[in-house]
Amino acid sequence: MLAIRSFFYFLLTLPVKVLVRCKIVPDDSIKSGTLSSKQPVFYVVRHQSASDLLTLKKACKKLGLPDPLSKVDIKGQQFSRTICLEKPTPIFRWRKTRQTEALSQGIALLKEHGLDPELNAQLIPANIVWGRKPNIEKNDANVGTLLADQESPSALRKFFIVLFLGRHALVRLSEALSIRTMADQHGTDDVMAHKLLRVARFHFHRQTIAATGPRLMHRQQMFNALLGNASIKKLIADEAKNKNISTDKVKKQALNIMDEIAGDYRESMVQFGERVLDKLWNRLYKGIEVKNAHVVRELAQDGHEIIYVPCHRSHMDYLLLTYIIFHEGLVTPRIAAGINLNFWPAGPIFRKAGAFFIRRSFRGNRLYSTIFREYLGLLFERGYSVKYYTEGGRSRTGRLLAPKTGMLAMTIQSLLRGIDRPLTLVPVYIGYEHVMEVSTYHKELSGSKKQKESIFGVFKAIKSLRNYGKGYVNFGDPIHLNGFLNHQVPTWKDAIDPIDPQKPSWLTPSVNVLANQVMININQNAALNGVSLIALILLASENNALAESTLIEQLEFALKLQKLAPYSKQLTIPEDSAEQLLAHVKELNKITVERDNLGDIISLSNSAALEMSYYRNNIIHTYVLPSIIARIIERTTKISHDEIVKQVTSIALLVKTELFIWHQPEDFEQAITQILESLSQLELVKQSKAGFWSAVDCTHVRTKLRLMGEVIDETLQRLAILTTAISRQAPVSKAALEEQVMAVAKRLSKLNNINAPEFIDKKALTGLINALKDYQYISTNDQNHLLDNSSLSELKANVSNLVDIKVLQSIAR
What percent of the chain stands above pLDDT 70? Predict the structure, then answer.
């Protein structure tokens, strides 16, 4: 029997090799190769199918895992390495489906563990998904869907599945389970074996839904569901009555709005896009680094409604994140895209890839806002994952923008309809070593009109494609909305109304807290890279130029500091050396290299400095605390530990909102202490027996501290302008203060050749003024004019001590 089976597998090897192209998604523990070679490895699969097992064998060979068709010897007893849960459905219905040997194998394995305490077999769940087509309503089903839509297909049906869907197979290898742990915790009896198989079946079901998505709803069905929605029906009746027009006319308007908004998801478009993007990324990037994808896979398998909330750097974000999600074995999300992208032919293509379109403003249009809110709620109800950008648009400066809260508010309102599945936000950091729109961003910040997207712009962008270095996609810590509301508003469930959810008084303040937490989580997952680090250093140097040896030393210092005192545990730090990072940046033509008799000089031209400020701003928040500390120590002969903590905290709290720094006030002392200890370990600072900190007496050390301190210089200058203006002019209206400070900032930017656009950003200035009010450095009188409080003079003195005297003189004049 075994010989016949082996011969049958041999005959099928070539067809499987030709017909099957599988995407392999292993969990991190399997990918890293940490499985013990001394303990036996088993696989558990759904179907006892030759095509499944041969496809699994193909995947295991690529990953260097044991052959699933081989045998495992445990004390002279032979075990099949693969445990199959179900046998195929018989071709002829009158034949009874036979049971597999899974239960007997499971019982035997558990008993072996009961007899041998040293045995610790590893069990890897392996799910083979043929095609990524979601199930759809039967009247809309196509051949591929009907083929794949069966739990245990017959041999004949499986032949057609492999024939039609084999090029889109997915092999999902989950984290290995320790049978020893299960045996020790739950026993080795038959009940445990039954339970193990039951859990495996449920695991595969969840995993398949995560990969293919919930049952697909046709576009027209969605329109019908929305027209039957209680809130929309009530609004249509109200609109008809208030405007004295027929209900049919309002319905027609509603259908036009639905047609403008709704996506038209087609799995075939996603498959086609994946093939195109495979080639595109290979041309554009030297690699896409992905971090923490396992977090999202676990959420999907646990039945969470996932809402991806990424930062927004480039139009590439739409494509890159969707591509990564698909390659991680998950169904692609429905994407909220700006209405400006709904131009031919991009609009129809994006719709079929899952995009739905959103206007820039809903103001004054109740019909549109209600339909959009209910459409979003319908997506959540049906279990579709969703992606939207809380910044509302692409960042033109490289920093995170202040979040727009409309989509988050509608998401919470969806919960108030009584959705029974958990809604979970997943913040995502997206970073690049090159953003193709950067030059356009600087033109827009300089006053040029934003160009409207068009097909000609797409062709122009394609023509200029080149090597863009690396891309980074880091999934952040999820925010469970149910848990967030339980903590923020314990009585929030009292506002649930499935028919017509209202806008409770707690909604706006809660959404503001949530939006800020999303942005903080995004910044926690920042990715340091050669371009951003070299931009950080060169823009902090005089004339934006350094000797190559000095640049390498400063780059090593910046890397070591983050490894010793990381901004956050989720921060991505390059493994390459400083020399390797610099060589890579040279290849990208981001810097100018000049050679003289003493060696190479690395510098930035004026245009390059403007561009590199964008990449510096991607990571500047990660060096805020080290920079303030370095500036204080470099400018002070000696200073006590408590005084450093006090000064650093007072400044960092003011820029906390602007830069979305994760530290809470109570966390600052611990972070500051860790940075000081790291600087001491690097032999840059020392602490006396009396507890005073000072810089090591060495010119080389002073240079490193000075360059690190210059990172925060522009922020300190803006703060110096603001504190000086308030102390001189108070009481002063907020508008007058902003006008005066903006005028001084623009003048300083000319005098000091400051190219950073955020230096004269009015929104950043408004944020600083609000922070000064929040921390009671200033207050308001009855006329709502700003007054300086007694604590402002101390802050002004501390800031002035950290700003160059020439700049202070310019501010004073």
Answer: 93
